[in-house]
Amino acid sequence: MSESSLSSKLFATAKQYIPGGVNSPVRAFRNVGGEPFFAQRAKGCRVWDVDGKDYIDYVGTWGPAILGHAPQAVVNAVQNAAKNGVSFGIPNPLEVDMAKLIVEWVPSIEKVRMCNSGTEATMSCVRLARGFTKRDRIVKFDGCYHGHVDALLVAAGSGALTHGQPDSAGIPASYAALTTVLPYNDVEALENCFATLGDEIAAIIVESYPANAGLILPQPGYLQKLRDITQKHGALLIFDEVMTGFRIGKGGVQEKENITPDLTALGKVIGGGLPVGAFGGRADIMDMLAPDGPVYQAGTLSGNPLAMAAGLAQLREMEKNQGWQRLEELGQTMETAVLETLKKTGRNYQWYRAGSMFCLFFTETPVKNLTDAKTSDLNAFRSFFHYCLNHGVYFAPSQFETGFISLAHTQDDLDRTAEVVQEALEQLG
Ligand code: PMP
Fold first, then answer.
1. Buried (b) or exposed (e) across 112-142, using 16+ Cβ within 10 A?
2. What's in the GO CC field (predicted)?
3. Model pLDDT for residues 145-200, shown as the tens digit of each residue
4. Nearest to residue 125, comparing CAs of 288, 9, 292, 349?
5. Looking at ligand 1, which residue's alpha carbon is closest to its atom 12?
6. Local structure of 113: helix, strand or coil
7. Of the residues 55, 58, 142, 145, which is catalytic?
8. Start-end ranges of CATH 3.40.640.10 in the chain?
9. Rounded to the nearest whole angstrom, what is the distance from the C-alpha of residue 147 to the centroid of ligand 1?
10. Which of 228, 235, 237 is nearest to 263 (CA)?
11. 234 φ/ψ angles, rounded to the nearest 5 degrees
C-alpha cells in the first residue's frame, strides 16, 4: 500500500479515532505486516478497494459470504424487509420461519434462539450449560476460538489439566480458572481430564472443525469420543458451528459426522452478511432459558427482521442451487491445483480442506493440533500473502485462519488463483 493511496490515508485517520484503526483486531494486518486496504464495494467473489484495485476474495467477510458478496437474492430480501420496518422489538413472522428452518436442517436442534453474533451464541451456550448441569467448569481446546467470551478467551496452558490463564487483560483469573484447556485430538488428555474433574464439568465446547488456528480436522473417532465421554460424566457437548454451520453442509459438521451435540452455536452464514448468531439444541435444555426458565439471555435486536430476511434468503438460495455440492466441486478443483503446485515447487507444505474451507500450513509437520500449527514458517506465509495480495488474490491476513470459497467463484477465478499461488510459492526461494 503506497503512502499516497486513499487506503493509507484512511488508515491514518482511522487510527486517530478507532483503536488500532480497526473494529476487529485481525483486520489490522498485524500478523503479516503492512496496512489493510479499505473496501469500497464487493460483488460476487470480488472486492474493490477505495483505490480501484480488485481482488479475488477468499475471506468472504470471514465466512458469511457463502453465495459471494451482495447476492441479488439477499439484497432484494433486505430491501423488501426494510420497507416494512428495520426493527420491531416485537415478535415478527420471519423469526418463526428462521427457527423452523434451523430446527428442520440441523439434526440436534429442537429449539433455537436468535442473537446478534457468534460470541453471544457461545456465551449463551456456556451459561445455559452451567445453569442446566449446575456445574461450573468448562473444557475447551487449545487453538479453538469461540469469540471474545471471558470464559473462552483462554488457550494458554495447553498441557492436560492445566488451569486456564486468560489470553486477554481484563479477564479475572478466577473466571479463567473455571476453564480447562486441552490439546485437540488427544484422547489421553481428555480421559485424564474427565477422570480427575469429571463431576465438575458442565460442558465441553469445541469447534466442530477447528478453523481458527488454520484448519484442523478431527482424527477418526475423536468427535464421537467427545460425545461418549460427556454423556458418561453427565456433562453437555457444545458444538461451535459458527464457522461450519450451513457451510460444511445443510446440517453442518454434526450431520456430516453423524454426532449429536446437546447444544450448537451458529453465526456467520446464517445471517447472510448481517450481524446474526443463534444457539439451539435439546428442548429440555433450551427450555431452561428465560422467560420459561432461570437462565437469563436477551437482546434488543435479536431476531431483527432485516437479518432474518437476509439469512433466510441466503439459506434458501443455497438449497435451491444445491450449493454444497457445487462448493465441494470447487473445493476439489482448488485442491487438485494446489497439490500439483506444491509438487512442482518442491514444497511439502500441509494442505487441509473440508468442502469450501481450506488452509495451507507453511510447515512439513502434519497438523493435528495448535502445537503442530505453530511449526509453520510465518515469514514464508507473510511473503506468500503479500505476493498474492499484490497480484489480486486476497487470502486471510494470518496463517492461523481458514480460507473460504463461495458459489460465486468461477473456474476462471480458480485458474487465476492457481497461477498466482504457484508464482507466490516460486518466489519464496
Ligand atoms: N466461534 C467461531 C468458531 C468463530 O469462528 C467465531 C468468529 N470467527 C466466533 C465464534 C465468534 O463470532 P463473532 O465474531 O460473530 O462474535
1. bbbbbbbbbbbbbbbbbbbbbbebebbbbbb
2. cytoplasm
3. 999 988 888 863 333 334 456 778 888 888 889 999 999 999 999 999 999 999 99
4. 288
5. 118
6. strand
7. 145
8. 72-319
9. 5
10. 237
11. 70, 25
Report whether CATH 3.40.50.2000 matches the domain 6-70+322-426: no
Pocket test for ligand 1, best of 62, 119, 239, 264 (most atoms within 8 A of CB): 119
d(CA 208, ligand 1 centre) in Å: 13
Nearest C-alpha neighbor of 318 from the set 108, 46, 71, 82? 71
Q: How far is the CA of 135 from the centre of ligand 1 (A)?
A: 25
Q: State the chain's mean pLDDT as an integer.
A: 95
C-alpha to C-alpha distance for 402 and 63, rounded to whole angstroms: 9
Residues lining ligand 1, Cβ inside 6 A: 62, 117-119, 122, 145-147, 207, 212, 240, 242-243, 267, 277
User: What is the CATH class of 72-319?
Assistant: alpha beta
pLDDT attached to residue 157: 33
- The residue with cell 491476513 is 397
Residue 145 is among the residues annotated as catalytic for this protein: yes
- Ligand 1 atom nearest 147 alpha carbon: 11
**What percentage of the chain reaches a pLDDT higher than 70?**
97
Domain with CATH 3.90.1150.10 in the chain: 6-70+322-426
In angstroms, what CA-CA distances link 415 with 50, 204, 372, 393?
26, 41, 30, 12
The active-site residue, picked from 49, 142, 240, 262, is 240
Please give the Cα distance from 348 to 357 (Å, whole number).
Answer: 20
For the stretch 14-27, pLDDT in tens is 999 999 999 999 99
Can you point out the beta strands (E) in 345-409?
A: 350-354, 357-361, 393-394, 403-404
Catalytic residue among 55, 268, 352, 413: 268
Neighbours of 97 (CB within 10 A): 15
Q: What is the DSSP string of 136-204?
A: -EEEEETT----S-GGG------STTPBP--SSTTS-HHHHTTEEEE-TT-HHHHHHHHHHHGGGEEEE
Beta bridge partners of 159: none
Q: Strands across the sheet with 179-182, in order? A: 111-115, 277-281, 263-267, 236-240, 201-207, 137-141, 179-182
- Distance CA(407)–CA(71), nearest Å, equals 10
Per-residue CA distances from 314 to 220, 246, 268, 370 (Å): 32, 10, 11, 33
Distance 328 CA to ligand 1 centre (A): 23
